[in-house]
Amino acid sequence: MSYYDIDSILTDGQKLPCTFELEVPGLGILEGNPGDNIKAGTRMDLPLWLGKMLSIGTRLGTSRLVNLDLPPALSERVLNALKADPRTVDLRAQAPHFYNLSEQILELFEEEEMVEILENTFKKRAAEIADHAHNPKGVLGGGVEFLRGLDETERQLFRVAHDSAKETRIWAGEAKKTGMTK
Amino acid sequence: MAFPLPRGITPPEISFLAEMEMVTIMPRQRLESLELLGGLVEPLLPPRRATLPLWLALLLKRQRRANILPPSWLHPESLSLILDIETQHHDYQHAFSPPPPLPGQPSLRNLNAGTIARPRFTPDGGRYFTAPPFLPQNTVQDHVLDGEPPALPFHWLEVGTMLLDAASDDLVDPDQVRRLLKELREVRTAKIREGVDALDAAATGGGGVALTGVGAMEVGEGRGFISGVVDGLRKIGASKEQARREQMAEEIANGGYDGTQDDDDDDMEF
Predict the structure, then answer these.
(1) With an 8 Å Cβ cutoff, is B140 touching chain A?
(2) Candidate from B196, B235, B239 with C-beta closest to A126
(3) Which residues form the signal peptide (chain A) (predicted)?
């Protein structure tokens, strides 16, 4: 991921529930009380980049500042829904950058089962995306609900598949080239 | 994006490459031998067939100076046979019909029949086997190899479409051919889409996905989607892959690969 990748920047801004393990002097600004201390045991949502930095003691083995939890987008409830049927879950409502987020989370947590569920989800949904991308009517018809629930990675996938199918159709003379650029 | 062009090559570029394929024509006019960058083009003498690059053949066809003889796979019979293989044959339910055999390789159907290699020789006398795109997969063969089933060459879709466009009057039953090409394309596109299930093998180290028999245009069309899926799966599975590598490194450290380690040590001494 590039330094200037806007998707990666937005992913870093997503909130992660954290619990402070120690009392931190002067960090009350995070709670909206500038100048105060943050008490041990305070729970709050911090952006991914900040939570990652504060929890760094976990990996070094020293006492850590905050304890990270799984974000609501990757909660048990969502994973169970994905296990049941990946196609009906609105990933975009969970997190706009669902896969990028889970990728970062998986770096922090060791979750063998989550990897498997997510891989299966991605595969199942990718096949569905390919169907919609090759069939322009699907966008207007019953596919709207599904396509609205695509996360950013899947939207890019849809666009790539749709564009290449369209270019091939234009080449074969089945479709007219429009003046519109993507 | 800083780089506006998508990865891979566009359909017009693919069909440009396909124009390098050699086809057989029946000239109607005499033409002296042409000296082109790619080598000499044989002189055209009307009753005699000649083999030309597709782009030149199409040019002559448009000027009504030649007729193009369709390659053997572009007949309705061959195409419907291939379509049968793609749809009915249980070995190819999820695979593509086999490509034409390469020279120096036994046919896919009967591996025991021995090679049908016919080596060619350089001016220095060196032996070599031609490889695509210099294989005459779209020319008309005088002798059909016994029992050799028809097969789609690498540039089947491009050559087929271009010939239908420019030389439909030279084809046998062009409407039927057009319909069969379209059907073949649909069947094979569906197979590419089904292949997503197999793609996680490509995302892990050492895995691979068989694309034997997939044509140039199909590869070009599927490239963006397939690489996107593989990339996504790779990212999701990155932590699992990391764990696997660590485990492997541990095994090596614990003496799991004694032999190789000794070799390394020996090398170090020199």
Answers:
(1) no
(2) B196
(3) none
In angstroms, the CA B226 to CA B201 distance is: 12
User: What is A70-182's CATH number, 1.20.58.2050, 1.10.460.10, 3.40.120.10, 3.10.450.50?
Assistant: 1.20.58.2050
Q: How many CA atoms lie within 13 A of B198 on its CB side?
A: 12
Q: Domain spans of chain A? A: 1-69, 70-182
Q: How far is B48 from chain A (nearest CA, A)?
A: 33
pLDDT tens string A43-83: 888 888 888 887 776 556 666 777 788 888 888 888 888 88
**pTM of the full predicted structure?**
0.76
Task: Extract the tokens encoding A140.
Answer: 């207007």
Residue B218 parent element (H or E): helix B216-236
CATH, domain range A1-69: 1.20.58.2050
ipTM: 0.80
The class (CATH top level) of B11-100+135-197 is alpha beta
Give pLDDT tens digits for A136-150.
665 566 677 778 888
CA distance A99 to A150: 10
Task: Among A110, A118, A164, select the one facing B224 at the smallest CB separation.
Answer: A164
Residue B168 at interface with chain A, using a CB cutoff of 8 Å:
no
C-beta of residue A37 within 8 angstroms of C-beta of residue A28: yes
- CB contacts, 8 Å: A133 with chain B: 225
